[in-house]
Amino acid sequence: MTRILLLTIAVLAVARGRAHAYPQFELSKDQSCAGCHISPTGGGLLNENGMMVAETISKFGTAPEFMYGKVETPDWIAVGGDFRGAYGYLQAPQRYLIGFPMQGDLYGNFSKSNFSLQITAGFRPTEYSNENATHVWSREHYLMWQSAPGTHEGVFVRAGRFMPVFGLRFAEHPVYTRRYGGTPLYSDTYGVGASYVTDTMEAHVTGFVKDPLIDPVRHSRGAAAYAEYRVTPSTLVGAGGMAELYGWQRVFRGTLTAKQYLAGPDVLLSGEIQLVNPHVSGYGYKQIVGYAMGTWMGPQGVMVDLGYGHYDENTGLHGLDRDCVDLNIHWFATSHIEAVLNNRIELIGKGDGGPTGAYSLLMAHYRL
User: Fold this and answer.
1) What is the Cα–Cα distance from 284 to 258, expressed in whole angstroms?
2) For residues 124 and 26, what is the distance between their CA atoms, to the nearest angstrom?
3) Domain tally, the chain
4) Is 339 helix (H, G, I), strand (E, B) or coil?
5) 6, 67, 112, 168: least surrounded by Cβ within 10 Å?
6) How far is 145 from 159, CA to CA, in rounded Å?
7) Measuring CA to CA, how many Å separate 166 from each of 44, 201, 265, 272, 286?
8) Burial class (CB in 10 A: 0-12, 13-18, 19+), 247
9) DSSP structure class, residue 25
């Protein structure tokens, strides 16, 4: 179990990351992720409303446009980028001081009438025995048709390479419902997806296949469906399902999600629980994955997350479950510069499965 803990914490902390939207802003700043992003599912390039939010939540403001508005682009082109690095302490159970790059991505979106082409390009961890061809890649690229261009509502149809839409889509990839819940880091894959988004509800369906070009994280083909309904402007409930088919394995998962925004204390409560049923060579068993987070929008420029995660790898076997407590402190200095202190304590088998793991990492983020 010590080896398992070492591997788990090291991978969680050291794996290079990628930027997503912060779903903590859904309900607290806007009704949907599409309200602030060009993508119907959030992440990547901000739209005009998203740039306004980036400016108003930050401590010192500054022009939120690409390169502070000093470099203008035609209306049909949107460009940007995200750069992140981290340095800090890791206990797994040995103790280390570590520093590493997390992300270096450039974005481009090219639109014409109802159609747009989205391309994300950047560095990636090299693939063994294929290093020269995998120093850089396009993690995400797709062609999209939108029923109402220039708005964040309507029907969106995408074909290309992107992450299947499932669950709350937390930005932090070590969150259990991402790492063990069907959308782990680098599991973007080729597929076709359709989304319907309004201010009161959204629904997403994705069909995907194994990436035929590189050795991928996701070695399956399958489909995912996810929907959210905003009962009130401050209350959200959601549900979804995913089926993945491997040559020797079948994995079926269902998820329930919820969010509640408390305007008085400016707190967002988010939660997700997944029931997973893998079948390996005819043998089936059950897993439980859950994560709950409370987010406080503090003084100007500050956001604090307190999260708790639980993952039971096999409910029929004792001692395989793990729990974590996360504390993330965000400081949005300007509309382009963010610092985050990420902290985690993790136990296996309530402490009986091995020594305690932990990390405390200071991350710097710059948005072009």
Assistant:
1) 28
2) 29
3) 1
4) strand
5) 112
6) 9
7) 17, 15, 29, 11, 19
8) exposed
9) G
**Among all chains, which residue has been given the structure tokens 């990436």?**
211
How far is the C-alpha of 351 from the C-alpha of 344, rounded, in Å?
15
CA pair distance 31, 35, nearest whole angstrom:
7
Cα 121 to Cα 7, 74, 75, 108, 259: the distances in Å are: 29, 20, 21, 9, 32
Instruction: List average pLDDT for each run of 10 residues in the chain, which is 368 residues long.
Output: 37 42 83 84 88 91 90 92 95 91 93 96 79 80 94 95 94 93 91 95 96 82 96 96 91 97 95 95 90 96 97 89 96 96 92 83 96
H helical segments located in 62-110: none
Tell me the whole-structure pTM to 2 decimals.
0.89
CATH number at residue 198: 2.40.160.10
Say which residues have a Cβ less than 8 Å from residue 264's Cβ, sequence separation at least 6. Answer: none
Domain ranges, residue 235: 2-367
Count of positions (residues) in the chain:
368
Match 């629904």 to its residue by tokens: 203
Angle at 158 between CA 247 and CA 130, to 5 degrees: 50
Q: Please return the burial class of 205, using the count of CB atoms within 10 Å of its CB with bins 0-12, 13-18 and 19+.
A: middle
Q: Return the H-helix or E-strand segment holding 238.
A: strand 235-245
C-beta neighbour count of 190 within 10 angstroms: 19
Residue type, 367: R
